[in-house]
Design brief:
Elements: H1 3-18, E1 22-27, H2 30-33, H3 37-50, E2 55-60, E3 72-75, E4 79-81, H4 89-95, H5 109-113, H6 131-136, H7 141-149, H8 152-162, H9 174-183, E5 190-195, H10 204-211, H11 213-227, E6 231-237, H12 241-256, E7 272-278, H13 287-294, E8 318-322, H14 323-335, H15 337-341, E9 351-358, E10 364-369, H16 374-381, E11 391-396, E12 402-405, H17 415-420, E13 429-434, H18 439-453, H19 459-477, H20 482-498, H21 502-506, H22 509-517, H23 519-526, H24 541-545
Length: 546
């Protein structure tokens, strides 16, 4: 496979698509499939044929606006329909070439206009199970360019210049990690794609794997070339069956096209990849626990150093990046590191994909440039808080993140800015809460999650999160004292400073951030024996004494 052959495939797809007057793209990501978008696609195909309309009906991945699904995008008119049912197929078919169906049309221009799509640029426009669709949109051009025109060190240099930081949560400079693995001594090296997405309310990696798996694979192959790896593993949650199925088809088609396996693109470079299924352990998102799981051992973290870059999978140098990180690689190689670095903020380059959920009108997947204000994400892109309620807080970074109050909505979203105010970027979960949320109960929910998901290997995390949960429960039911609050604060510091891995080290974040910004709610529960949001069942003083 060379650039000429890629262009021939792309031209063939373009000619095939040009035979149609319209392209009717039906979202068949998990969210829309749960509302029977597969039956909708069949109905549209039948109605368009029956009415003699010259249109291509295509299965696509997630279009982002999950709350409005099932979604249908009609090109080239760029008409987006929302909440489309099989019964609406006739109306949509009739509208082709005439006026749009007004009652189905989605006019949330602000929601889409404020976004910048790099990772999600193909979502909604290609069939995720058809490799030629991906090739027709510049797919694998970066790989051919790298293998035929660039040395591995030149590939790494472009990633360094881009300023890309790991999108899995830690924000470690990707180019620096690649350079470390490339310099590590070893005849055999591995690349791992971390798709073990376990944060409550997060579905970014799942959607990317469902919508554009070839993009992730191309990034992984480029990484393997850059660091000198010959084998790769996709570690994906077994709870993501659609992502696993589409990724399996992706690997099969890439091998058939000579883009995976031996002699990739007619060069001496050999690389192959396979899928490993995770059993749902949140801690396996931590890289050393993930490695143990792939090796067939219990998924528990180990002390570092040595780091996986030096001694990882089966003791060999191993590069681990998450799904979104790999999805950024091909565009960087195609367009250059400086292009990517021109997007975003000073120390956080490029874009970030967020799963916007909770008490927000436009629930779904969004991709925005780094540095964008939280207020713009929530009030403009997200449409604000529904049903006349007021915004109270937004939690970023999953169960390990912090809760950010309304007075801090004008902060720019970046790794350093979020860390400074007691939260983290995390992998991209963003949960919005309104005035009906009790922040003490929210902290308890996330601590309970961390307690349940703790692997139990180290005492601070195993015992500390359990004691934190007990103290928060006492506060919520009105039986706590101010001494309990002081003990909770001390316990948070101990767990944070002495836990073995990131799960325990960041488990206190929801408590510490709510104490920092919503301390009055803790005082109300403890001193005044009331829950301001009316969520907690506070016992009366007589009941507590009894």
């Amino acid at each position: 496979m060379n650039l000429e052959e890629l262009e021939q495939i792309a031209e063939s797809v373009r000619q095939e698509n040009a035979r149609f007057d319209y392209e009717v793209n039906v979202c068949m990501g998990t969210g829309c499939l749960s509302r029977h978008s597969d039956k909708l696609k069949d109905a549209l195909t039948e109605q368009i044929a029956a009415q003699g309309k010259n249109a291509l009906v295509r299965r696509t991945g997630c279009m982002g606006l999950c709350a409005a699904g099932p979604l249908v995008l009609v090109d080239p008119d760029e008409i987006l329909y929302q909440h489309v049912r099989s019964d609406d197929a006739g109306s949509v078919a009739t509208s082709l070439g005439t006026a749009p169906v007004a009652e189905l049309q989605c006019n949330l221009r602000d929601h889409f206009d404020q976004q910048v799509h790099i990772v999600l640029e193909n979502s909604g426009h290609i069939d995720p199970e058809r490799i030629d669709d991906y090739i027709a949109r510049d797919g694998y051009q970066a790989l051919v360019k790298a293998l035929t025109e660039m040395t591995p060190s030149e590939v790494i240099q472009q990633i360094v210049e881009s300023g890309l930081r790991g999108r899995g949560g830690g924000g470690y400079p990707t180019g620096l990690k690649w350079g470390t693995v490339a310099k590590a001594f070893g005849d055999t090296k591995y690349v791992i794609c971390n798709g073990d997405e376990g944060d409550p309310g997060a579905f970014m990696d799942r959607s990317v794997l469902e919508s554009d798996p070839q993009r992730v694979l191309e990034g992984m192959i480029l990484a393997a070339y850059a660091v000198g790896a010959s084998k790769g593993f996709f570690y994906v949650r077994a709870e993501y069956p659609l992502a696993v199925a589409r990724l399996s088809a992706c690997l099969r088609d890439a091998r058939r096209r000579g883009l995976l396996g031996n002699g990739i693109c007619n060069t001496p470079f050999n690389f192959d990849a396979e899928i490993r299924l995770g059993a749902g352990a949140f801690v396996c998102g931590e890289e050393t626990a993930l490695i143990a799981s792939i090796e067939g051992r219990r998924g528990t973290p180990r002390p570092r150093p040595p780091y996986p870059a030096v001694s990882g999978l089966w003791g060999r140098p191993t590069l681990i990046n998450n799904v979104e990180t790999f999805a950024n690689i091909a565009p960087i190689i195609r367009n250059g590191g400086k292009w990517f670095a021109s997007i975003g903020s000073e120390r956080s380059k490029g874009t970030k994909v967020f799963a916007l959920t909770g008490k927000i009108k436009n629930t779904g997947l969004v991709e925005v440039p780094m540095g964008i204000k939280l207020r713009e994400i929530i009030e403009v892109i997200g449409g604000g808080v529904p049903d006349g309620h007021t915004f109270k807080a937004v939690q970023t970074g999953g169960p390990s993140g912090g809760c950010i109050p309304a007075e801090m909505l004008d902060i720019g979203v970046s790794y350093d800015a979020l860390l400074k105010i007691g939260s983290i970027m995390g992998s991209g979960g963003m949960i919005v809460m309104d005035d009906t949320s009790c922040m003490v109960n929210v902290a308890r929910f996330f601590v309970e999650f961390c307690m349940t998901e703790s692997c139990g290997k180290c005492i601070p995390c195993r015992a500390g999160t359990a004691q934190m949960y007990k103290l928060l429960t006492r506060i919520c039911d009105g039986s706590a004292t101010m001494d309990d609050l002081d003990l909770l604060i001390d316990l948070c510091d101990t767990v944070k400073e002495t836990s073995l891995c990131g799960l325990g080290q960041t488990a206190p974040n929801p408590v510490l951030s709510t104490l920092k910004y919503f301390r009055n709610e803790y005082i109300d529960h403890i001193v005044h024996k009331r829950c301001p949001a009316g969520v907690c069942s506070i016992q009366s003083p007589a009941e507590v004494t009894a």
